[in-house]
Amino acid sequence: MSKRLVIYLMAGRETPELAEAAVEGGADVVELGFPFSDPLADGPVIRRAAERALAEGMRTDACLECLADTRSRVDVPLVPMTYAALLEAHGYDRFEQDAREAGATSLIVADLPVDAEPGLRRVQLVAPTSTDERIGLAAEHTDGWLYLVTVTGTTGARNGLSPALAGLVGRARRTTDVPLYAGFGITTPEHAQAAAELVDGVVVGTRAVEVAEEGPAALSDYVRSLSTMLH
Amino acid sequence: MTVGLYGAYGGRYVPETLIPALDELALGWEDARADDEFHRELHELLTTFGGRPTPLTLTERFAPGKRLYLKREDLLHTGAHKLNNTLGQALLARRLGKQRIVAETGAGQHGVATATVCARFGFDCVVYMGAEDMERQRPNVERMYLLGAEVRPVEFGTKTLREATSEAIRDWISNVETTHYLIGSCVGPHPYPSIVRELQSVIGREAREQILQAEERLPDVAVACVGGGSNAIGLFAGFLEDSAVRLLGVEAEEAASLGDGRTGVLHGARSSLLADEDGQILDAHSVAAGLDYPGVGPEHAFLRDTGRAEYVTATDAEALAALHRLAETEGIVPALEPSHALARVDGLEGELILVCLSGRGDKDLARV
């Protein structure tokens, strides 16, 4: 089994080095959080990480510099993940252009449903509550892979893999051939392995953000514990 | 396709998880609006439970040289205009088969109005309230407890309405299949701004009829305070087509989303916000918890841009002075929020003035 492992890190001063460590540990893609002050899709861990990042000055321009610095250190796809408020302020086209110039492979915007800003190329998200019609629409417009939100909820560690994932994967597979990556709530190597039985890639955010606080070596070890289950 | 727009404002900026629920809500609302039974039941509740129509009171001494009328939403059951909205949305939630209600509250008036309808309809009720607001609006917290609601303190950020709203939306994201989010103002993703506006428009409809009856003409100016803007949009809705009636919204000086704001996205909609050049939301400040919010309903941003309504500000001190003056000259203790509207009556051009007295001041006694 060889499935893709996506690791989410909040943009910050240490992030380029952390991203390097994540890739050493086996991350195939790195999502880079551009923090927003009022992140509705996020649970407490990522919300607090965003508050800390903003307090240390990680505004849009600093995040773009962080992205470029990360790009110079790793070869894997880099995907900024953020909220519509930042694109609204920066300009949607300009944000996309600046992000790509800084080395972004695509974008994820947590609160921009597929029918908003159709001109913006991005990885689309679908959730267990999505109708088949909306899954089809998101698959049609997505950039590279489709992000399956495994839970009806916000980001954050869970005790087990969401039972809603299997049904969502089944509905998505009937609709589309694009690769399906699952995220939200995937915390342990066992969760990652169970999810990988169903999908083509696994996204780990909250737990990675927590471990990243312990430094690059700890992050690299944690990512390796996930990637050995997937690769 | 972008839905629910007021000019460039409004829309649905929410995680995909909520989109089917917003679609369901929009359909359920259209269905209810077309149903005579819904209107009959809402009217019955507003009348026999809420106490509508609320009176229009001509002031005696507050504004010498003017004929100042107060639309007395402070006399509505629970003490503020918020019940107009919660009764309508409770009926809607029941039609949608939801048994659990989640809401945010700032001043606590929306929380009390939500807890009240939940008690009456037998719904489970969770209200998110900033820890700072729980402290400064303690009487309303006690009322919510009495009514059987669970009040969840929000302990991060500014600990006010802004974070309470975020937490209520996060709760809704996690419980969307069983829960109706009973938003308290004309903010949030489509269709909420239009639902709240329509449910609050009873204020303007009644006030228009009442002032015509009393004066045989329309007011020169209609004034209301603006936090999220629901009492103002409800009042303005009655006079939007009357181009001779000047519409004036009064924001708290350090929470002037319309006066000092820029276009941005917060809590599911594009509107005029207190935000920095990167779109990060800035802190608002007001002595009035119900106005202490960095956003505003998208229709107000639209009315500002078109020039149909104007928006000015009042300071904390001006609002406090107006509160005391109304109490001493008229025998009415207003809430701090509509005291901002009262503070701008002095110096207004025009002789016949209508102010929405959106709530009573009992909750504020410890602060004034």
Describe the structure.
The complex is a heterodimer of chains A (about 230) and B (about 375). Chain A has about 230 residues and is an alpha/beta fold. Chain A has helices at about 15-25, 45-55, 60-75, 85-90, 90-100, 130-140, 165-175, 190-195, 205-210, 215-230, and strands at about 5-10, 30-35, 80, 110, 125, 145-150, 180-185, 200-205. The longest helix of chain A is centred in the C-terminal third of the chain and has 15 residues, at about 215-230. Chain A starts with a strand and ends with a helix. Chain B is α/β, with parallel strands linked by helices and about 375 residues long. Helices cover about 40% and strands about 20% of the residues of chain B. Chain B is built from twelve helices and 14 strands. Chain B has helices spanning about 20-35, 35-50, 80-95, 110-120, 130-135, 140-145, 160-175, 190-215, 230-235, 300-305, 315-330, 335-345; strands spanning about 5, 10, 55-60, 65-70, 100-105, 125-130, 150-155, 180, 220-225, 245-250, 260-265, 270-275, 310-315, 350-355. In chain B, a hairpin with a 2-residue loop joins strand 11 and strand 12. Chain B is globular, with a radius of gyration of 19 Å. The N and C termini of chain B lie far apart (about 50 Å). The chains are: A alpha/beta (about 230), B alpha/beta (about 375). At the A-B interface, helix 2, helix 4 and strand 5 of A face helix 1, helix 7 and strand 11 of B.
With strands numbered from the N-terminus, the spatial order across the biggest sheet of chain B is 3-4-14-9-10-13
Numbering strands along the chain, what is their spatial order in the largest sheet of chain A? 4-3-2-1-8-7-6-5
- Rounded mean pLDDT of chain B is 97
Class by alpha and beta content of chain A: alpha/beta
Topology, number of strands of chain A: 8
Short description:
Chain A is an alpha/beta fold and 231 residues long.
Topology:
The complex is a heterodimer of chains A (231) and B (368).
Chain A (H helix, E strand, L loop, with lengths): L3 E7 L4 H10 L4 E5 L10 H12 L4 H14 L4 E5 L1 H7 L1 H10 L6 E2 L15 E2 L5 H10 L4 E4 L14 H12 L4 E4 L5 H8 L4 E4 L1 H7 L3 H15 L1
Parallel strand pairs in A: 1-2, 1-8, 2-3, 3-4, 5-6, 6-7, 7-8
Helix pairs in contact in A: 1-3, 1-10, 4-5, 8-10
Chain B lengths: L4 E2 L2 E2 L8 H15 L2 H15 L5 E3 L8 E6 L9 H14 L4 E6 L3 H13 L2 E7 H6 L1 H9 L3 E5 L6 H14 L4 E3 L10 H24 L5 E5 L4 H8 L8 E7 L9 E5 L2 E5 L24 H9 L2 E6 L1 H15 L5 H8 L8 E6 L11
Parallel strand pairs in B: 4-14, 5-6, 5-8, 6-7, 9-10, 9-14, 10-13
Antiparallel strand pairs in B: 1-2, 3-4, 11-12
Helix pairs in contact in B: 2-3, 3-4, 3-8, 4-6, 8-9, 11-12
